[in-house]
Every structure is written in C-alpha cells, then in structure tokens.
Amino acid sequence: MVTIHKSACPLDCPDLCGLDVTVENGRVTKVEGDHRSPITNGFICGKVRKIADHLYCDERVMAPRIRVGAKGGGQWRDVSWDEALGVITDKLARIKATSGGEAILPYHYGGSNGWLTEGGLAGRFFRRLGASTLKQTFCAAATMAAVRGMYGVMPGVALEDYAHAQLIVLWGVNPSATSIHLVPIIEKAREAGAKLVVVDPRRTPLARRADLHLAVQPGGDLPVALAIANALFTRGLADQGFLESQAAEVDEFAARAARWSIADAAAAAQLPAADIETFIELYASSSPAVIRVGWGLERNRNGGSAAAAIMALPAVAGKFGVRGGGYTMSNGDVKWTLAQETGIGEPAAKTRAINMSDLPGALRLTDPRVEALFVYNCNPAVTAPDQRGVLAELAREDLFVVVHDQVMTDTANLADIVLPATAFLEHRELRRGYGAMRLYDSPAVVAPPGDARSNTAVFGELLRRFDLVRPGDAMTDDELVASTLAASEHGAKLRAELDANGVALPPLGDRPIPFVDAFPGTPDAKVHLVPVALDREAAPTGGLYAYQSDPGTAEYPLALISPALATQITSTFGQLRSAPAHLELHPDDAASRGIGDGDAVRIFNAQGEIRCDVKLSRDVRPGVCSLPKGLWRKHTANQLTSNALIPAHFADLGGQAAFNDARVQVERA
C-alpha cells in the first residue's frame, strides 16, 4: 500500500520546509518538498530527501540497552522499557535523595526539534526534579543576546523579500550549505540587477559569484563593521532623521565606532582597505539593502559585539522601512503570541545554571558534583568544546550517563543506558520557523522501527514514576498542542489555519516590513545601539564593541574554523558519512610547511592534536584552515575532531562557545 502524507522538516535550518512523504508498506520511501510555502517551492535539500537512509540505517537504536563491561567497550544488553526506566528512576531518585537534584544535569540542544521534543515534558520533568539548568550556548547565544538587546522581539526581513533588494550582504553565512532555499531568491534578485557581497573567511559557492568577497580573518568582523559605521557617520551618509526618531545611544555608538579607521580595520581583519571602501560605497548607495546576519561570525571572542555592530548598520544608514531593506537574524522573533513555556507548564527552576560549552568543567563541579548526565537531542562527544575532557568525563565509572537518541552516536557509545528515540517523521511535532515565517503542526506519518519512543512518551513516563504529574497537566502531544494554542490570543486563528492545511502564518503576516509593520520590542520601541545590559555583560572584555585581538601566536599561527557540511545538520546524519575528514589548507600555507595535496597531517596546539589527510584549496584564505563541524570520531585517524582544539574562553556575550578562536599549527604526520 502506498500513501502520501504532509509533514514539515524541523531540522536546524531557517527554511522550515513543507514535505510530501511517500510511505510504502509502513516505510518511508520518498520525501519531496511541497508547495504550502513559497520558501520550499517544491524542492528540499539532499539531507532530507535521503532521510530514509537515516531512518533505517544499521546504527538505528531499536530497543533500550544497558551497558555490560567497561564504558566504551561496545557491549550491551537489550532490555525492556520497563527495566530501563526502572533503573533510571532508581538511580536518579537515589542521587536526588543523597546529593540533591542539582547533581543531575540534563544535556540537550534541540535545534533540530520542535516544541514537543525540545522543552515540553522533558523541561517539565527536570524542573520539577530540581535538576541543574543548562545554558544552551553552542549556537545563537551571542547573536540572540545582541539582537534582543538592540531590537527586542522584532522580525527581520522575510527571506522572500530578498528578491526586492538591490544589495544583498551575506555576512558569516553560507546558504548553499545551511539555507538552500535562499539561493534561488538571491539569484532572482541578481537577475533583476542586485549586487551581492559575501563576508566570510572561505570562498563559498556564493562568494565565488559575488560582486565583492571580503575574506575576513576570523574574529575581524567587529572592526570592519565599526569602521563602516564610522565612515557612514563621518561622511554624512548616516540617516540622522531615522536615528533621531527611532534610535537611542547614537552618540555613544558613534564614539565607539570612531575608534576604527578603514586602514586599522583592514589591518585587523587582514583585508585590502579598498575592499572595505567598495563595501561602503555599495551599501550607502543601494536601497533596498539587506544584510543576512549569520552565525559563523559569533563563534569567536568578539562574536556578540560583531553581531551588534553589523545589525547597527541598517539603523545608521537608514535602510529600514522599505520591502527588502534592513537585516535578517532569526525570524523566530516574529510575534506569534505563542510560547514554548506553555508546553513545559512549569516555571523556570532556580537551580544553578551550567554553560553547556564547558561540559568538562560542569562535570568537575562540587557542591554537589554532577553524578548523572541525561543526554537527549544532542551529541556532546563530538559537538562540545574540549573534546578530550568531555570524553574523559563521560568515561568515568561514577558518572551515570543516559542517552536518548535515534542512532548509536559517539556519546551513546559511552553511556550506561541508551534509549531508542523517534525521528521527526515518527512523532507529532509543532515547529515554528526561524527563517521562513511559518508554523507547522505535523503528525507522525510512519510508525517508529523497533521500540523507539518520543521525548513526550519517555519524559511523561518519568514524570509519572517520580509522582510529579499534577492535576490538569497536559501529558500527550495532542494535549500539549491544544494547551499551547489555547494560551495564545490568536490561537483560534492559528488552529483554524493548521486544521485547514497543517501550516499557519503569523498574526502580522509572513512578510512584515521592519519599521512599517513591525517595530522594536524594546521597552521604548527604539533601537538601542549600546544597550546598557549588553555593555555591562561585556565589561570584563572592555565593554560592548571592544575589540579583542587575534589569539594567534608564532607557535600556533593558523586559524582553525569548522564550517557546516551540506550533508549534515551538525553531527546529525554523521553515521551515514563514510568518507574520512580532510583539512582544507591554502597552497601557500602548505608550501611553507612542505605539505602536499593528500598528505597525512597533524593539526595541533597546546590542547591536543588531530590527524587526518589534507586537501589543498584556495577556498580558504591564507592563514586559515578548515575542518568541518559535525564530524564523528571515526572520520579522523586519531578519533578526535576540531572540538579537541577549541580554547576555553567564550565570546563576549551569551557565554557563546568560541569555536573559531582555535589557533593551530599544521605539519606532515
């Protein structure tokens, strides 16, 4: 029997595609894009088009399993759900009774999950248990701190409206790998005469075709943005009328930007000064002009200030108020009047907050020491900084580790108990886009293989076993969706749209124009160019917009970056990748080290080393080398990835991991 079902992809991508899923004899056999959203427009990425390879791969966890033998030894005993949950309940209850709830740490990220599987009953369970609270800082911590401090809750330019822009700036983002539906929109704009600027250390596919590519040194985005702002002010190119009526702290921002001349910024970012001048000319003279602010630029010591400086540019230059003009960060900030907290149904716990980007430090804490780690929606063995420290802590026999995942990840291999999880086509999901302004309510379209259970089912049962269920609690997916919509002032409208087609638009519509239809969600409805709270948070590093110089040294001169793979969502789908990792290295850097294409190399700094083969490429600028993020341990010769070389410090805002501040040396192995 063949049936076709509607669904939506919740994976960590701005596009939020609607899907047509073909099911034959109870198995997914084909996935295609549908036409419910003009963003999807009938096509999807290769990752999701081949989702059946993931759903039915050999690495899929089919039943709960308990470790036998040493951690990491690969020996398991399949057990029933009742036995597995019984062991977990007994262990967590003993830890809570003897050491307190904060000795339990939930570890999750959930960028590829909706509101039912990230938050929901899992959040409720750990809050009521009194567990430690996790600060999620792998991505978007610095950028979201910046945008919320400056603009509050306000949507940016709709992705569809890039077609109206005369200038498109892609700053720290590679849509060819992470948001493919923006690419044809950009091409449409270019056919109509728009110019394209790409700011990225790598020559991405769009950078190769751009009118201007600024191959900025990682961490150099901040001085470049401030120098551009300074030029706008000093050359009479700032929109004084907009700034007087719509912005605050204008003089203070101008004073801080004035610290940077074009020449000084070019030196710090290792760019030709003429390229920055060209950018200024293009940006000042183009309208509509839009900046797509990416997440690559936040992954360093200056990340929060860099994001803030870039998002200040459309305010200074007066680029808002026209369709296709302004910036886009996360359009999850469109005002849906829906709250993820409704589904959790429990106030945020007042327990200690632990930064997920310092997992080894968290696991070494005392008073109390973390005795249990419950991992879901995450694979920290290959995604968290200080990989060697993470692996050492996970291997502790006195640390009880539970992993709920779809496949046997590198983290699952070090667990005490592994629980089989459903994939998004196997459970209901409510997902709001952060690029496409859409909300999807997607039912399960196929039964999960084996004994896989959703987060709702697992944590609902744990709530019951711990006697933490209260009268009136929403406990099923259907009840969670109903209660979330019922709490919204626009819930009836959204419910009607979802019932009609499985997709709903925001109350403001899917293409609001910033400063026409939507305004800053700050208390005074103004743009704050130097928010007091952000300035205070950044005080330890000199305050907002203070530049921290490049951490490279003579001993470790190369910047190691970890861009996204087009075939994975961070580490998700990594089990399907059989090809070994290659370090991308510029030919000039290779020649000075006697390295040839295809050589085995050692990438190292004081924190450790990675061994793999090298691929010479002019797509990385001199002084920069690249090893993709999301690699699994099997992809390198010594089973370590770029996360083994990441420094211990964070970005200036949000506790953001400074992945791209790794400075290394490379030599032939």
Structure description:
By secondary structure, this protein is α/β, with parallel strands linked by helices. The chain folds into 4 domains: 2-55, 2-Layer Sandwich (Phosphorylase Kinase, domain 1); 65-138 and 352-504, Rossmann fold; 142-329, Dimethylsulfoxide Reductase, domain 2 (3-Layer(aba) Sandwich), CATH 3.40.228; 558-668, Barwin-like endoglucanases (Beta Barrel), CATH 2.40.40. The strands form 7 sheets. It has a 6-stranded mixed β-sheet, with helices on one face. The protein starts with a strand and ends with a strand. The model has no long low-confidence stretch (mean pLDDT 97).
What would you say about this model in short?
The chain has 669 residues and is of the alpha/beta class. It contains 23 helices and 27 strands. The longest helix has 19 residues.
Number of helices: 23
Per CATH, the architecture of the largest domain is 3-Layer(aba) Sandwich
**N-to-C terminal Cα separation, in Å?**
55 Å
What is the strand tally? 27
Physical arrangement of strands within the biggest beta sheet:
5-4-17-16-15-6
Radius of gyration: 24 Å
pLDDT averaged residue by residue: 97
- The CATH class assignment of the largest domain is Alpha Beta
The assigned structural class equals: alpha/beta
Beta fraction: 15-25%
Q: Do you know the CATH topology of the largest domain?
A: Rossmann fold
Largest sheet: 6 strands, mixed
- Unreliable runs: none
Approximate shape: globular
The helical percent reads 25-40%
Number of separate domains: 4
